[in-house]
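Project outcomes to date are best conveyed with an example. Our students and postdoctoral researchers have been running inverse folding experiments weekly, and each run begins with a structure described purely in tokens. The record below, which covers 544 residues, was selected by the lab manager from last quarter's runs and is presented without edits.
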């Protein structure tokens, strides 16, 4: 995948490799053998690399103009997988347990900067915190080679931080260290431990390299505490908890000013409320836009700014703009699960499945225990026509989060398309409330009617709510349900709306999805698909 040029500074082998869509080993070889313009900074302990996008684009152009040039060979990079388990808090004041959560997150962020190392995300790491698991069980769940675990003991203003490294294959400790500091020295302690772990890994594993440095979102302890507490709240993933997180961030901004990390987190909270269906109006989007305006003034090139811009564009139904911003975020930081999820889904919607698939695989590798990610893995299989695999992935998503009705809706949709009528009816009976209670319940009952080839009952209030959203999902699912029921006009109406919201997967609609088979001879459908194919080709030209 060739990226567009710009003046962005790429600060690791990981980001340089992502620019070309190649492995780290490949771009290292290009530097050694093909003159790839990579520069180096020397630090006290070791060096780090950087490159400018404009230099890389010029090198790539000159390389392509060389007559009889051989194709640039790709190599398979060795990658070590590491998980940082949530550190235990051993203080007497439970209200201070955020220290362990925040310290764990900063270790994850710092180690993610190392090349050749795949660090399991904080969401999957924290998902294991309440479970008593052996090292072997953890390794099986997240495919980790190395485990970092430890504790923080607080006595008054003083902290004693102990960590150890465990080889997951042997269940043996290979390194340990204890450091002490006061609360004001917590950032230095984080940097010290990341540096020590990095050196240990690079000495024992030749594929792990890079500049071992932590990048706290803020060096102000009060702001850092607000960020950690807000993140803990938002991870509860309920409307009340997300509103609590937003309130905490707003109070901190009022007190400490428009710190970019606080503003970025607040923008995400606004979008979380839409993501969980708590507020589908434009109010959260408008509030997130205000945060984005502030970020573009202060930190326009930060990955968080690009990610927020992409997320807002996606929520507004502008998928091309979303992909532009999310790809910029991905090049700068490919370890953020939200960026990976949004970018891969945008690619899938646009019919750029070949670009989406490796990103989905990467997402599952670094964040295997987040249910939503398995929805993307299932979507990848669904759009490729592998319905059995899609049903299996959606079922796994349901098992990870049984109370998530959206997961059950996706599972019902996949079973409906694959013809599992009795399984659909059984699940709808188990999980759906009245057909007009929520959009999700409405859709569950619509699929039940569809597989029975019955007319789908009217629910004007809910239908208006689904039509008012700016994302493709609800209209697309309604089109499929009406297609199964045999209502061609309704299916086409909802499908046209989904297309207006960014659904451009031409192959899935014209060749794969059996629920749309009754539309394929319709002149209006053919005209719609002709327009979509042109749009999809333009997107491929832009992004491939």
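After processing, the design step wrote out the following sequence:
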């Amino acid at each position: 995948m060739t990226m567009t040029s710009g003046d962005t500074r790429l600060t690791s082998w990981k980001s340089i490799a992502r620019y070309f869509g190649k492995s780290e080993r490949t771009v290292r070889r290009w530097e050694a053998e093909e003159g790839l313009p990579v520069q180096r900074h020397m630090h006290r302990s070791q060096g780090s690399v950087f490159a400018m996008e404009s230099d890389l684009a010029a090198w790539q152009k000159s390389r392509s103009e060389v007559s009889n040039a051989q194709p640039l060979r790709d190599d398979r990079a060795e990658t070590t997988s590491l998980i940082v388990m949530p550190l235990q808090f051993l203080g007497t004041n439970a209200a201070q347990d955020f220290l362990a959560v925040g310290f764990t997150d900063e270790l994850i962020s710092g180690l993610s900067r190392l090349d050749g190392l795949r660090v399991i995300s904080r969401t999957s790491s924290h998902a294991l915190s309440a479970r008593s698991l052996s090292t072997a069980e953890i390794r099986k769940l997240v495919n980790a080679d190395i485990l970092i675990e430890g504790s923080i003991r607080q006595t008054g203003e003083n902290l004693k931080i102990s960590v150890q490294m465990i080889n997951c294959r042997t269940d043996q400790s290979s390194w340990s260290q204890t450091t002490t500091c006061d609360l004001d020295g917590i950032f230095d302690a984080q940097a010290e431990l990341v540096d020590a772990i990095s050196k240990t890994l690079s000495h024992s594993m030749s594929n792990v390299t890079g500049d071992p440095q932590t990048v706290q979102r803020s060096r102000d302890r009060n702001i850092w505490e607000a960020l950690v507490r807000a993140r803990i709240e938002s991870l509860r993933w309920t409307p009340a908890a997300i509103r609590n997180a937003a309130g905490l961030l707003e109070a901190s901004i009022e007190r400490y000013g428009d710190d970019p990390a606080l503003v970025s987190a607040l923008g995400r909270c606004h979008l979380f409320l839409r993501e969980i269906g708590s507020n589908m109006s434009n109010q959260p989007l408008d509030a997130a836009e205000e945060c984005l305006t502030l970020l573009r003034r202060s930190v326009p090139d930060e990955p968080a700014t690009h990610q927020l811009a992409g997320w807002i564009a996606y929520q507004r139904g502008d998928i091309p703009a979303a992909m532009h911003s999310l790809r910029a975020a991905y090049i700068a930081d490919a370890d953020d699960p939200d960026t990976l999820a949004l970018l891969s889904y945008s690619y899938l919607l646009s019919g750029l499945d070949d670009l989406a698939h490796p990103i989905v695989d990467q997402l599952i590798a670094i964040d295997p225990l987040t249910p939503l990610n398995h929805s993307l893995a299932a979507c990848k299989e669904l759009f490729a026509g592998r319905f059995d695999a899609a049903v299996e992935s959606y079922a796994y998503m349901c098992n990870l989060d049984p109370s998530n009705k959206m997961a059950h809706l996706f599972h019902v949709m996949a079973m409906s398309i694959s013809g599992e009528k009795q399984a659909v009816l059984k699940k709808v009976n188990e999980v759906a409330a009245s057909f007009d209670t929520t959009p999700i319940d409405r859709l569950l009952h619509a699929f039940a009617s569809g597989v029975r080839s019955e007319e789908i009952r009217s629910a004007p209030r809910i239908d208006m709510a689904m039509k008012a959203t700016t994302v493709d999902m609800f209209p697309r699912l309604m089109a499929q349900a009406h297609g199964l029921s045999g209502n061609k006009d309704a299916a086409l109406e909802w499908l046209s709306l989904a297309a207006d919201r960014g659904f451009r997967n031409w192959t899935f609609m014209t060749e794969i999805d059996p629920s749309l088979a009754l539309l394929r001879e319709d002149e209006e459908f053919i005209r719609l698909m002709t327009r979509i194919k042109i749009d999809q080709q333009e997107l491929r030209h832009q992004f491939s």
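Confidence is low (pLDDT under 50) at residues 1-6, 65-77. The longest helix spans residues 523-543. The training component of this project remains on track.
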